[in-house]
Amino acid sequence: MTAPVSIRNATKTFGDFTALDDVSLEIAVGEFIVLLGPSGCGKTTLLSLLGGFLSPTRGVIEIAGRDMGDVPPSKRPTTTMFQDYALFPHMTLRDNVAFGLKMRKVGKTERHAKAEELLDMVGLKASATKKPHELSGGQRQRVALARALAVEPDVLLLDEPLGALDLKLRRQMQDELKAIQKRVGTTFVHVTHDQEEAMAIADRIVVMNEGKIEDVGRPEDIYMRPRTLFSASFMGEVNFFPGTIDALTDDAIHIHTALGAVKLPASVMADQNATAAQKITLAIRPEHFRASTGTGPRITLGKAKVEDGAFFGTHHRAHLSPADYPDMIITAHMPQSAIIEPGAWIDLTLDPASVVILPGHPAAKVQEDAA
Amino acid sequence: MISPRFSKIASWVYLAALYGFIFLPVAVLVLFSFQDGRLPVPPFNGVTLKWYGEVFADSRLMSALGNSLMVAIGSSLVACVLGFCAAYGLARYILPASRLQRGLLVAPMTVSYLIIALGLLSTFNWLGVSLSLWTVGIGHVVINLPLCFAIIYASMGDHQKNIERAARDLGAAEWQVMTQISAPMLMPSILAAFFLSVTFSWDEFIIAFLLSRFDVTLPVEIWSMLRSGLNPKTNAVGSVVFLVSVALLLILELIVFRRTAKK
């Protein structure tokens, strides 16, 4: 079972604190949506509104076209997978998974068969008669998934379900989650603060900050064409170059930053309503300073001196200080084969299409996070 | 400078004195219940089971023993159910003046049994309720409810709250959450409360004495036996009471604490 979700102008306040501020979002049938953001950004509040554990102060939530206004959690077509698993400690795995069906008055034989089928799907059929305390963290997580899916919800809500697992297991569970989601076709809404996890599993990522949606899109779009400074800095490392628009033409945009003037194609501008003299920021990913050897359109931001470098396996991560503005520190990822020596000079050459122009200048804190 | 040897001996002596102080009266009671003679005082004349035979042949003692068990189990069940409901309500819902309510629930623990018994006695008189084993049971619920509430409330944590939330999310109604999730999850502490409550009710005297009339509990029956003087038979019945209490504590230890340790 699966259904679309429609969130319109949802606001949730706790006293003076606005946890969720006029959020609207359409989720398609069978989509894997990840709500991504730092703690306190409102992502868990939004999930609780969908699950019915909280009711919105204002706004409407519809699942499968039905207004969820007065529907309690037990009557919603949603189930939740909790961060701490919340398995029933006194029941066997089979009874855990069959619990939702029991509440729906499904007969014993039928619900046990269904429970075993789901335990089989998560690879725990042999442990059906064990109790949760006999399992490892990853196994408990799988039982929680099987239990939530047993009642065939339209929408599965996942509240940072992989947060307690170690890195390797988390990567493995991400793959499994994604595969199971494709198989059952249920709409998944998954909350996390881990941007790599978001990219690994999401059809679409919803970046949230301070109760608002900053950006929505496919992982590729969010990473390569973020729409806000926050979104750019939260999804991986980025360098910000504050600047001003000098002039706009039909196909090009002239900008000057501390590193001099650059001309970029108009298509890299996130905000299409930009005007001359507007404050903007160039966002450049560390791996995009590698264009010096390739062909195609090029722009340059001058030369930079290598301050230090470290080898990360897939790349060298280096800190550079530009010749034109030595106070600025740029993070760059150079190819594995590059020889990075402190004091060496590098051309800051870029493919103009890889640059993103974002409205506004970063606040001091955002710059710090990005550095 | 005290030698280590001396301090070691001193600590053993202290230990022996401590346990002697606690258990000597019980040991004497049990020992003289086997006295082969008419008086439960030294010298010890030899071992006989005659007094136990008399105890079990005494129909009044046996019916008092039955009454005691009935009152203890019945009142403890009621105290546990009420205590669980109160704990669930106060731990899971935001209720008006919940601190005050919690305080009021445990307050009877600080009141002496004599005062509680007197209060109940005048209340029953005023209401025109005649004294019986029922009134004794009500009295025991009054003294054991605070205990059951405190034990069960203390074991209700936030982790279980999330588990209950999961049950609701899967379609369980509130009464199903309570009976199928919360109560089984809290069973170790509910059982602990139950067995402690049974032991307290089992050898409680003052309330049972003041609130009963024709049918009495075992401690009250023993008290009326004592009025005709000490004899090894009173020791024997006292030993039986003690044995049952010990057995209850052992059950508590074995079932409840063993179960919690396993998790």
Describe the model.
The complex is a heterodimer of chains A (371) and B (263). Chain A has 371 residues and is α+β, with helices and mostly antiparallel strands. Chain A is elongated, with a radius of gyration of 24 Å. In chain A, helix 5 (167-184) links the parallel strand 7 and strand 8 (187-192). Chain A has helices at 43-51, 93-103, 108-121, 137-150, 167-184, 195-201, 219-224, 229-234, 364-370, and strands at 5-14, 17-27, 32-36, 58-63, 66-67, 78-81, 155-159, 187-192, 204-209, 212-217, 239-248, 252-257, 260-265, 279-284, 299-311, 316-322, 330-334, 345-350, 356-359. In chain A, helix 2 crosses helix 3 (108-121) and helix 2 (93-103) runs parallel beside helix 4. Chain A folds into two domains: 5-229, Rossmann fold (3-Layer(aba) Sandwich), CATH 3.40.50; 243-370, OB fold (Dihydrolipoamide Acetyltransferase, E2P). Chain A has a six-stranded mixed sheet, with helices on both faces. Chain A has a five-stranded antiparallel sheet with strand order 13-12-11-14-19. Chain B is mainly α. Chain B has a domain at 59-228: MetI-like (MetI-like fold), CATH 1.10.3720.10. Helix content of chain B is 77%, strand content 0%. Chain B has helices at residues 4-32, 50-57, 59-92, 98-106, 113-127, 133-154, 158-169, 174-185, 187-202, 206-210, 218-226, 232-262. In chain B, helix 1 packs across helix 12, helix 2 (50-57) packs across helix 12 (232-262) and helix 7 (158-169) crosses helix 8 (174-185). Chain B is globular, with a radius of gyration of 23 Å. The A-B interface holds A 51, 53, 72-75, 78-80, 82, 84, 86-90, 99-100, 103-104, 133, 147-148, 151 and B 159, 162-163, 165-173, 176, 181, 184-185, 187, 263.
Give a brief outline of the structure.
The complex is a heterodimer of chains A (371) and B (263). Helices cover 25% and strands 33% of the residues of chain A. Chain A is of the alpha+beta class.
Topology:
The complex is a heterodimer of chains A (371) and B (263).
Chain A: E1 5-14, E2 17-27, E3 32-36, H1 43-51, E4 58-63, E5 66-67, E6 78-81, H2 93-103, H3 108-121, H4 137-150, E7 155-159, H5 167-184, E8 187-192, H6 195-201, E9 204-209, E10 212-217, H7 219-224, H8 229-234, E11 239-248, E12 252-257, E13 260-265, E14 279-284, E15 299-311, E16 316-322, E17 330-334, E18 345-350, E19 356-359, H9 364-370
Parallel strand pairs in A: 3-8, 3-9, 6-7, 7-8
Antiparallel strand pairs in A: 1-2, 1-4, 4-5, 9-10, 11-12, 11-14, 12-13, 14-19, 15-16, 15-18, 16-17
Helix pairs in contact in A: 2-3, 2-4, 3-4
Chain B: H1 4-32, H2 50-57, H3 59-92, H4 98-106, H5 113-127, H6 133-154, H7 158-169, H8 174-185, H9 187-202, H10 206-210, H11 218-226, H12 232-262
Helix pairs in contact in B: 1-12, 2-12, 3-6, 3-9, 3-11, 5-6, 6-9, 7-8, 9-12, 11-12
